[in-house]
Amino acid sequence: MESVGMDWAAIRTVVWTLIKILALVVPLMLGVAYLTYAERKIIGWMQVRIGPNRVGFQGLLQPIADAVKLLMKEIIIPSGASRGLFILGPILAIAPALAAWAVIPFTDSLVLANINAGLLYVMAITSMGVYGVIIAGWASNSKYAFLGAMRSAAQIVSYEIAMGFALVGVLMAAQSLNLSDIVHGQSGGLHHWYIWPLFPLFVVYLISGVAETNRAPFDVAEGESEIVAGFHVEYSGMAFAVFFLAEYANMILIAALTTLMFLGGWLSPVTFLPDGIVWWLLKTGFVLFLFLWFRATFPRYRYDQIMRLGWKVFIPITLVWIIVVGGMMQTPYGYLFH
Amino acid sequence: MTYTTAIFYFFASILVFAGLRVITARNPVHAALYLVLAFFTAAGLWMLLEAEFLAITLVLVYVGAVMVLFLFVVMMLDINLEKLREGFWDYLPLAGFVAVLLVIEMALILGSRHFGLEVMGAPAPHAADYSNTKELGRVLYTEYVYAFELAAVILLVAIVAAIALTLRRRKDSKYIDPAEQVKVKRNDRLRIVKMQATQKPGAGEDGA
Fold first, then answer.
1. Residue A143 to residue A230: CA distance in whole angstroms
2. What is this structure's pTM?
3. Which candidate from A120, A123, A134 shows the least CB-CB separation from B68?
């Protein structure tokens, strides 16, 4: 026991960390807002429409207008709802979506918390995102919301296993759980990225990522044509918007993780150009574009097809490829997998 | 009070509160959610002990998977609390006996001269680059490899048995075989008939 108060160094660390968190969350929220704009524009062009073009130049202020509109709306709590949990639902949806960003490195030095078990931390935190959906569905006391929650819970738990195994492959190749070390393991140009030796895992991870974020074609949790809007059918105003924010923050997170683990993070694809955050942004942007492209292209999966794909296709693929990677590492060709 | 101690008491008080609410909450869904909170704070405490792998695995396995399925089941059940509480006084003597036994066991460990706080001091803190995960992996696959593999085999047997026990094929429901669906050719489903286009007598070009 030293003195009456806590030590000042600790307090300074807390304040400094809070500032850094703010510096991370504000650009992220802007990114989310303009991802919705990009989604509407891109899907619009794919369907030979113009997309939003009224608010501001080329509709650039549309996300701001949407946010203001949602802020002004009333949050209606259904009379039969479980009040506390109904409010807790959106909070539990957005909290993990933001907390996972703590360990995401943007460049060599630009990272909030460079922890050893970064990959494990991300997996643990993202696995908690499902609570927001389940609690919202149950607390709404509505059949459609509950059905959406049940669908989503089963789907997320199923795809998490395949995702986890895909990460095991990355961990074997990089021999580290630290996200910065994983990126460093891929240095040396385009052909050193893990996407090549771990290609099946890359595909599984990307598709599981779409399923984890409840995006089309795996959006049965919302299923607007069958169960209205699924788990958030009873939510309005800002409470609804928070679910929306969480979904898009999760999308960016999955895209960032795909970039870090398979596409070399901030490393430049060719050795004569310098590394930097630009590459990180470009690659993440490309993966996000894939997300939007999937939505514009594929019709929604039937529920039994989703379950079959997760359990009977993806999990065996990942298991086989982990054995292949492990086996190859014992041969003279092991360097191909490092 | 140092910073770490303050954090410890913060987590510990939440943990005790959540644990109490698990058994006192009237609604089973609320009780399950308090259990989630208890697991999460326990993970925080383990993190303070520098057991980062165990802490994160606790969140990943128990909070992220086991409790989700637990909630899934509890939400689907229609639980009558009155009926559950009926046998309370009948079970109390046995439960009390178990509780006393637990307290005695804990006292034996915490209070004895072999395990007391004086004997088992806090381990020296590790350097920042110490990887708890790597150390655990090394020990599991070298010193304890046989025990570890045995546990894995037992778990596998349990999984297979659980699936074998619950697997049943209903005769009256229709199954879809995706392999069959993929193999279907156009000619299996579609027949193109060539026929002469004819006009009904009396029907004009512009219809009725």
1. 9
2. 0.84
3. A134
